[in-house]
Amino acid sequence: MAVETSPSITNKILAHYDANARVLPWRSPPGTPAPAPYFVWLSEVMLQQTTVAAVRGYFDLFTRRWPRVEDLAAAEDADVMSAWAGLGYYARARNLLACARRVVADFGGRFPDSEEGLRTLPGIGPYTAAAIAAIAFGRRAVVVDGNVERVMARFHAVETPMPAAKLRLVELTDAITPDLRAGDFAQAMMDLGATICTPRRPACALCPLMDGCAGKGDAERFPVKAPKLAKPRRTGTAWWIERDGQVLLVRRPDKGLLGGMRALPSCAWTEKAAAPPVAGDWRDLGEVSHVFTHFSLTLGVSGVELDAPAALSLDGEWWPIDRLAEAGLPTLFTKAAKAALKGMRSA
Asked: Of these residues, 44, 115, 149, 242, which one is catalytic?
């Protein structure tokens, strides 16, 4: 069945955005020239599976340190990975560098201005390409993130569970996406989902679409979710190896989880009882837990203080403990380091 278009819905959404648009550092106000494609791209990559509140500080840091795509392309991998630490989903940081270098090397520092061209770049999928094309270049593109899915699922009371409903929600969004002001419309829909049509306790009375909303009165039921599968749990051990006010850090392999990041040495995340990489008087310092996309992890933390140089079965760097915050450890190993410091100092 063909999707019915409704210019009145589009106009209501844009009018609400003109009056209530969020002020964000990577945005231009409604009716003003589009922001730099570099800013749009950087913010969209950072916002993937991350909240606006969490991204603000990182966006400010990156744009002050690397204000142009050429600057980011020339940055050291380790510097970018350290600056990204804590933002999560570290493959995004690796793709960020690869994309910046591709834009500089193959496009003279200018991002392609079409969805098709943008999708040839590392780390840019259909959603990000559509968002950049619409917001930075004014192209008509159908931009559907989690906020937009929620607005459309509620407005049309879509009963199909997610993720099977995704294609239908794209079709519904396509039907109301205008040829002009596509970037403003995309951001208007995002704002509507983020500030009014929220996952819990949506402010339906303030919504510009309330009168025609098929899901009002039962909005929190949409989008309908498929039953969640329990995440598998893995275990492992992280080792705190201390000597002369320094701790041994290693660089994780470039590929895989937390690739390229500094970290405490650890065993494979398949068993907790693993032999430590150096002989010594090891102490049990507790454990920490972390949830990744596809599994949950519990790491036991063990520590040792060496009195003299010892033979190690791994390569690493000795990092001053009083400057550990500068190492850019990912969240998992920040938790492990805190547990280790507490345990070692109280022992």
From this structure: 44
